[in-house]
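Hi V.,

Quick status before I head out on leave. The structure for the redesign project is tokenized and pasted below; the design run finished overnight.
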């Protein structure tokens, strides 16, 4: 176990700060999200981890059942509630065309997103940031949350979407329905 991981072993952001628990994103119904790359509550493959720890920062493929017909836009948020920070660490935020029913691997690449995907700022930079938990900190959960929005998000916190921080984007949306799948990753 690394010294830093041992020191921070009991520090976790917690679930309460997840986008899933925001009143504006609660929605009234749920729909299904799955991945051909991992099962719910299973371990992510190393290719989906951060480059700095030997991964490829390759976002996993996702598929979902149709959201409500009135969906104007989809909001995808990936967060780590086990990060030793005040709030869950944001690994990706993206706005998706409401007609999409899935994303291929790598769809959240900041330089080359899939058609119908608009990647926004995450915890550091833009696009998908693969898991890179502190060595020895224990397993971290990565929560993939998809929200069916009533209206497109065009600005957040008085800023353009290009410069808006993740928390401002999450506050700007109103959800009709939501879907969630969780995965784990740990560095020993």
């Amino acid at each position: 176990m690394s010294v830093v991981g041992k020191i921070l072993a009991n520090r976790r952001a917690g679930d309460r700060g997840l986008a899933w628990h925001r009143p504006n994103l609660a929605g009234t119904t749920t729909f299904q999200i799955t991945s051909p790359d991992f099962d719910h509550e299973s371990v992510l493959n190393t290719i989906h981890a951060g480059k700095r720890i030997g991964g490829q920062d390759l976002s996993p493929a996702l598929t979902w059942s149709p959201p409500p017909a009135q969906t104007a836009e989809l909001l995808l948020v990936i967060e780590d509630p086990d990060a030793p920070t005040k709030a869950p660490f944001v690994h990706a935020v993206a706005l998706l065309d409401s007609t999409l029913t899935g994303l291929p691997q790598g769809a959240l690449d900041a330089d080359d997103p899939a058609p119908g995907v608009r990647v926004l700022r995450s915890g550091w930079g833009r696009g998908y940031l693969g898991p890179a938990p502190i060595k020895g900190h224990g397993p971290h959960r990565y929560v993939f949350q998809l929200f069916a929005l009533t209206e497109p998000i065009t600005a957040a916190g008085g800023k353009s979407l290009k410069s808006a921080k993740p928390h401002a984007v999450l506050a700007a949306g109103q959800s009709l329905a939501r879907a969630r799948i969780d995965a784990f990753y740990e560095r020993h």
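Above is the designed sequence. The two ends are 7 Å apart (CA to CA).

G. will cover questions while I'm gone.

Best,
W.
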